Amino acid sequence: MIRFKNLFIGLILGSIAMLAGSCSGDQSDEKAKVEIQETPPSVSGEGGGKLLISLSEKEKNELKIQTAEVTSNIQNYSLLAPGVVFPAPGHVSLISTPIDGRISAIMVREGEMVRKGQELFKIESLVFGNLVAEYLQAIAEEKFQTTRLERLKQLVEQTISSKSELDRAMSDYQRATAASIASFAKLKAIGVPDHEIETFKNADKIDPSLKIHAPISGSFDQRMVELGQAVNALEQVGRIIDQRQVLVRGYLSPEDVRFVQVGDTVTVARRENGGRGLQSVVSSVNPGLDEENRSVVVNVEVKPENGWPRPGENVRLEIATSSLGEVFAVPLKAVTYDGNQAVVFVKKDALTYEKRFITIAEVRDQFAIVKGGMQPGEALAVSQVFSLKALSRYELISEE
Asked: How far is the CA of 283 from the CAs of 35, 276, 300, in angstroms?
């Protein structure tokens, strides 16, 4: 039985040597020996045992295995991710009504460019009319109390009026001043600018029409009310988007996002046509998972060119990460498969190779990007890979 086993092994090794280009007709009595220390390692290449293949001097000379080093200095390593365009923070504004009323005028159309401070709507409101009346009464009372206080000061100096009357006048003046400040603040709180408040003082009558102004410059994106429509306080009536800056949200897996840092270079390109993209950097990375798609959101602010990209568009992000971590470049020539598991053969010394299982994250050019399970500077077999695979497989069969 032992003789038959040795003969079987010799025939296998002879076939391998012929495939390697050897013209020798003598069948070698020496054979490749596979030393199994433990069970084969897992798919990740971490944990488990090692499978070592030992070659004889003759087999080494016949196979002439070439090797290449593993490197972690991957130039232009990038992660691809889908993205969606949103208005950038500070470059979008929702227009809402500060008080109850009725839309009496609409002075802007959807898609129209507006400037900061431009009038957009008018709202007829009894509440606004009462606020203006309250302000006029407050400044009138403040003016009266100011004059009264100055007169009493003179009378006290001339000992005509008592000090108690002056104290009472001072208290009335302070209350009038506080009321004037409060009424002015109420008007400011509903969006009335200073120059309009000043005009109220010289107006012959009160106009109960509140003007709604644009808080930022940009494109008037949506109009949500019609002329004559009754609106409640804080009801949304429109939206303005400043398209000089947009926010792109990219969606990465939790495994990939650990290689991304704020400041990494990003190329934003069209999802289908590709072509030249816009350059930017990662501005922030959300700390938690997005509940809808179970991905980590990477935020990138971009300045559009020629009207692209627009909010709502789907784009493609290519993030050039500067933090590689345990990521290594393995030549594709060194990779083979054992079932569905990627395998490489690591050179331990001149006659010994280790069969190692790896996990491939991405294939770029002539390299496979591997996460973990490797060390920089390790030498991998890039020729006779199938011969090494056959040696390990058939020796395992013979050992059984």
From this structure: 52, 21, 5
